[in-house]
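Why do we bother with holo predictions? Because pocket geometry can differ from the apo form. Keep that in mind while you read this record for glutamine.
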Amino acid sequence: MTELIKYTAAETAGAIAKGEVSAVEVAQAHLDRIDAVDKKVNAFLHVDTDGALAAARAVDEKRAKGEELGPLAGVPLALKDVFTTKGVPTTCGSKMLEGWIPPYDATLTTRLKDAGVVILGKTNMDEFAMGSSTENSAYGPTGNPWDLTRIPGGSGGGSAAALAAFEAPLAIGTDTGGSIRQPGAVTGTVGVKPTYGSVSRYGLVAFSSSLDQGGPCARTVLDAALLHEAIAGHDPLDSTSIDAPVPAVVEAARMRDVRGMRIGVVKEFAGEGYQAGVMQRFDESVELLRELGAEVVEVSCPSFTLALPAYYLIAPSECSSNLARFDAMRYGLRVGDDGTRSAEEVTALTREAGFGDEVKRRIILGTYALSSGYYDAYYGSAQKVRTLISRDFDTAFAGVDVLVSPTTPTTAFPIGERADDPMAMYLADLCTIPSNLAGNAAMSLPVGLAPEDNLPVGLQIIAPAMADDRLYRVGGAVEAALNDKWGHTLLEEAPAL
Ligand code: GLN
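The structure, written out:
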């Protein structure tokens, strides 16, 4: 029974479809696991026991009636607390939304429910998805299951930790600057940022709308592909949603063949600041790709060195506009409304109490960057850099099918180490941010442990927009080769909780 929590999503769905186990048993096994370990991990902000069991029962009833089940029917999932869930609290890791119960489901939530996925609950995150460690959550940090004194990445640390702690085989994250891939890398799990516009943002609480993208998190490449297929596709409720067929990601994940592919190693993602063990595992992955029959070339993307400063102007600018909606009138918290104060005073008191330091820092920075007289110098320049980065990608992809790099410069750092140093924190996303600025697709996949600290290292694979299938083709092949070599999956090496 306890082994149910070790199943992949594909295995779980298969076992349910064949009647070897019921969806309710699967859900209960995961709820029990959450009960047993989440006090230590703090991956979940809210566990929806009744909702999960009801969804599982519905799958079992469907099966009993002989109705066809989808490829993820009955599979449990941990949902980042930034997607709205009708009747279930949604806080975005902020005091500002404490107690807020959304009256509607995000499109992504609806799709999961339609697919028969069992949503176990909502996961911890940096407040409004701003951060790289989950330490900016108003509800306390999440521990990395590999070492609970270390960060699980961020902002979607709760989702990644839930996977690595075997609390759920599937999770959802959002990636504005790396918040799916970086947590994936430091927890030894798979995370994919799909092409911008391919997963609906309707009901995804906005941080930086031109960068935000929901995506799949899983323990295997195939599981990520199955989830990707379930959540992607056109949505008329999102004006930036792409109206085109979803790339054949599941088929690509099953190919396990990279022969004939051209792979570019991004020269700029190396050097000072990169941990030796991270580079060692990355270099070995590149060698492996060669052995598997891919052609590997070095590629230069000179503008990538400007990506971090450009991102930290664009994202705060958009955040300062998006978070203006938290005005104490419409959602969640209201402070000081005792009949003696003006609306402006109540708004100010509420924002003072409701937002954490990092969110305030970004709102102030963004407001400044957008102010008259500074707009061209800051926001305007950053947008020009964004164009240069897209051109670097275009030039690179004219010669290669995918690009590769380490996902993060270092492995998981200790909780507290960078908490008071925003610049050091921002560096965690050095390699992931260019893809958000350009809007293309990228994956992080575990490729081993760094020898100096025995913590997971992630390989980043980047593909052109709407060529997400290439991520899965390369990722699936690397994963299969590594599992063959090790004789087991990386997560089997994680210490017991
Ligand atoms: N760490 C980055 C930030 O703080 C990215 C966050 C994200 O992708 N949501 O902005």
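The mean pLDDT is 97.
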